Automatic annotation (TrEMBL):
Pfam families linked to this entry: DUF2520, Rossmann-like
Protein name: Predicted oxidoreductase, contains short-chain dehydrogenase (SDR) and DUF2520 domains
Family matches, as InterPro entries: 6-PGluconate_DH-like_C_sf, DUF2520, NAD(P)-bd_dom_sf, OxRdtase/DH_put_Rossmann_dom, TM1727-like_C_sf
DUF2520 domain: residues covered: 133-257
Residue span(s) of domain Putative oxidoreductase/dehydrogenase Rossmann-like: 4-115
């Protein structure tokens, strides 16, 4: 019989992971959040969680809960304090969903593990867990096996990774996702300042990631730095003289690409 679940946190990860577990037969019956509105909105997405009453676990005391799986899905900053305060039911398995926080943060719990979904989450965009790699870690083989089975039932690829491997993967995810997205934000601002349609970049953005996935990023790299075209690089830098921060970033990335491909 699949254990019932309590979620600690109602942010972006919980917004998607809790309903996915619910649909897989792991009934999410309780949700705790510092914000009652967030808790209530998440409960509306679940089959059995109550929206009619505020959570009875304001102090994170779940000692009388019927849940046998507690999922801590809070920010990395909040995770240590939540882990130090949480009182789980006897025999409950406590897991967190962080990519950058080690399993050791849960060492005070007899049963503990990690279920890390490698994906970017926003409440406005639905996520298909069949396309989400899930990284699992357990304090022993039985826990790792249980989490692996649970992850397989969500539909995506499942991998075992220890805390050091998961931190490396989280760093790689930041390089792959967060930094390019920020650069896209800067590029859109450039176009706005020049009174150009920011939508012009959308096909390029999509093709860039599709080609990198198909060919590998090493082969998919293009642009003046990849070609070693310093004349174009200099022209670009002249355009950025009034934006010293962006100029520094452009110069750093261009020199890094030049060094990677031409040294």
């Amino acid at each position: 019989m699949k254990p019932s679940v309590a979620f600690i946190g109602a942010g972006r990860v919980a917004w998607h992971l809790a309903p996915a577990l619910d649909r897989a037969g792991y009934a999410v019956q309780e949700v705790w959040s510092r914000y009652e509105s967030s808790r209530r909105f998440l409960c509306y997405r679940l089959a059995q969680a109550s929206t009619s009453q505020p959570t009875p676990h304001a102090s994170l005391d779940f000692s009388t809960s019927t849940a046998r799986l507690l999922v801590i899905a809070v920010t990395d900053e909040a995770l240590p304090q939540v882990a130090a305060t949480l009182v789980p039911p006897p025999e409950a398995l406590v897991v967190h969903t962080s990519g950058s926080t080690p399993l050791a943060v849960l060492d005070r719990f007899p049963k503990r593990g990690v279920l890390y979904p490698l994906q970017t989450f926003s409440k406005e965009q639905e996520v298909d867990f069949r396309n989400v790699p899930l990284l699992v870690e357990g304090h022993n083989e039985a826990t790792a096996s249980f989490l692996s089975q649970l992850a397989h039932e969500l539909g995506g690829p499942v991998h075992h990774a220890d805390s050091t491997q998961r931190l490396t993967l989280h760093l790689a995810a930041v390089l792959t996702n967060n930094f390019p997205n920020y650069l896209y934000t800067l590029a859109q601002q450039l176009l706005k300042n020049a009174h150009l349609d920011v939508g012009l970049l959308a096909p390029l953005w999509q093709e860039t990631f599709q080609k990198a996935a198909a060919l590998g990023p090493q082969e998919a790299q293009t642009g003046p730095a990849r070609r070693g075209d310093r004349r174009i690089i200099d022209l670009h830098q002249q355009l950025l003289t009034a934006q010293p921060d962006l100029l520094t970033l452009y110069r750093l990335l261009s020199e890094s690409i030049l060094h990677h491909y031409h040294v």
